[in-house]
Design goal:
There is one protein chain. Helix content is 31%, strand content 27%. The protein is built from 12 helices and 18 strands. The radius of gyration is 20 Å and the shape is globular. The chain starts with a strand and ends with a strand.
Length: 349
């Protein structure tokens, strides 16, 4: 039996610690002893049991898809993963056979399953995942840095979908992924970075500390005026939107220069209306949606970034709160409060 955090009921909270059977290991799977797990916004949706969770999650379900741990057992067909290795996992399990998978788009597989969402996840002592989803970590890296590669990968995918080097870039939405976008941009050569939150001073400061040249509040500051002034009236070349609100998209399009690009990672709880003629067509703007991480280009880029000491330090500062696994409810409340960056939990500490 293994201890796990389980969504047991389809209701707000509805979450308990449970003793559950150890996960099985099929011929193509790898069993991993979890050392560190981190809380994602998706976990908050499941905990709160909002409309997205009601339509997607089928309790009982073990939470969690961000982790790092040690391999303790491998299936009979496993060839490239060994017992004792330090690993993390890509949470999107692709079929490998659909049109998208066979054309280099496994991150948007037509038959996608996500552990911690569609099947049991990583908020447990052990998790079993396919060998093809295992990522070998640098053994010298702190486990907590390896546990946040899922959101970091979202940020890497978003940033590298644009021509940002030497460009003026706005990041709208300053949760942990937004702050990670700032850290990547500063490390990799953006010219000026405008980090734009709403009214959370903790997260605006987090983005400033991650390297933003300007850290602004869309409620308290004249964002459009400041951006236009600092860019000689042209606007930013690139907008990275991670907030997932209609207001953030409208703001992003208003500060984007003609011919610029906006990449959307945020997930929206309601439809939004855009004046496409004014804000996109006549502006010659490019809009791109971002989903997950490129498998596995994004992971190799993360490995490269983690070789840079200054970048590791920036990500370490975005991990603002650390708890024991048994303190899950306290950790979740901190994440829900918005007064945090990434929140991690240690299975053994």
């Amino acid at each position: 039996m293994t201890k796990a955090i389980v969504k047991v009921k389809g209701e707000s909270n509805g979450t308990e610690f449970r003793e559950v059977p150890d996960p099985g290991v099929s011929a193509n799977d790898v069993l991993i002893k979890v050392k560190v797990a981190s809380i994602c916004g998706t976990d908050v949706h499941i905990f709160n049991w909002d409309d997205w969770a009601k339509n997607r999650i089928k309790p009982p379900l073990i939470y969690g898809h961000e982790f790092a741990g040690e391999v303790v057992k491998v299936g009979s067909n496993v060839r490239f993963v060994k017992v004792g290795e330090f690993v993390s996992g890509e949470c999107h399990i692709a079929c490998g056979h659909c049109y998208n998978c066979r054309n280099g788009l496994a991150h948007i597989c037509l038959n996608m399953k996500i552990f911690g969402v569609d099947r049991d996840g990583a908020f447990a002592e052990y998790i079993s995942i396919p060998e093809s989803n295992v990522w070998h970590n640098d053994p010298s890296l702190p486990p907590e840095l390896c546990s946040v590669q899922d959101p970091l990968g979202n940020a890497v995918h978003t940033v590298f979908s644009t021509d940002f080097v030497g460009r003026d870039v706005a990041v709208i939405g300053l949760g942990p992924i937004g702050a990670m976008c700032v850290a990547i941009l500063r490390t990799c050569g953006a010219s000026r970075i405008f980090a734009i939150g709403r009214k959370n001073p903790f997260r605006i400061k987090l983005a400033k500390d991650a390297g933003a040249h300007f850290a602004l509040s869309s409620v308290e500051d004249d964002v459009e005026g400041i951006v236009k002034k600092e860019t000689d009236g042209k606007g930013v070349d690139v907008v990275l939107e991670t907030a997932g609100t209609p207001e953030a998209v409208q703001l992003g399009l208003s500060i984007l220069r003609p011919g610029g690009k906006i990449s959307l990672l945020g997930v929206y709880s309601k439809p939004l209306t855009i004046d496409l003629s004014k804000s996109v067509v006549f502006k010659y703007a490019t809009i791109q949606g971002i989903n997950g991480r490129l498998m596995y280009d994004t992971w190799y880029r993360m490995a490269g970034l983690y070789r840079i000491p200054e970048f590791r330090e920036k990500i370490s500062k975005i991990i603002t709160h650390r708890y024991k696994f048994e303190q899950f409810f306290e950790a979740m409340e901190k994440m829900r409060s918005g007064e945090s960056g990434k929140v991690v939990m240690y299975m053994e500490r």
